[in-house]
Amino acid sequence: MVMKDAVYGIGTGEHLRVCPKGYTCCTSEMEDKVSQQSKQEFEIMVEDSSHNMRTTFISRHKKFDGHIILTKEASAISCLHSCSVSQVDMSFVHLLKAIPIRA
């Protein structure tokens, strides 16, 4: 808060929410400005300090999703490879065996 916003003089602080009640130089406008500024500064600090954590989480989330997708594909192909010929058409089995399993 800038000093030009300060009101010089003493008043009763009965209408204030944060500043002490009783005799004070704070006004409700000053209190609102300080409250808003404090909120903005806090949000900026939280944003800055959590940036690395969010970046790491997003990166690991993408890697995990990729791993799950590959595992699911490999599992499905492996399952189809192990099915008996009587359950699956012979040409389809031949086609599946030609597809390499990614690991």
TrEMBL record:
Keyword Heme appears in the UniProt entry: no
Membrane-related topology note: Lipid-anchor; GPI-anchor
Main localisation: membrane
Superkingdom as given in the UniProt entry: Eukaryota
Pfam families (alphabetical): Glypican
Keyword Lipoprotein assigned: yes
Protein's cellular compartments: Cell membrane
UniProt entry keywords in alphabetical sequence: Cell membrane, Glycoprotein, GPI-anchor, Heparan sulfate, Lipoprotein, Membrane, Proteoglycan, Signal
Family: Belongs to the glypican family.
Function summary: Cell surface proteoglycan.
Name of the protein described by the UniProt record: Glypican-6
Name of the encoding gene: GPC6_3
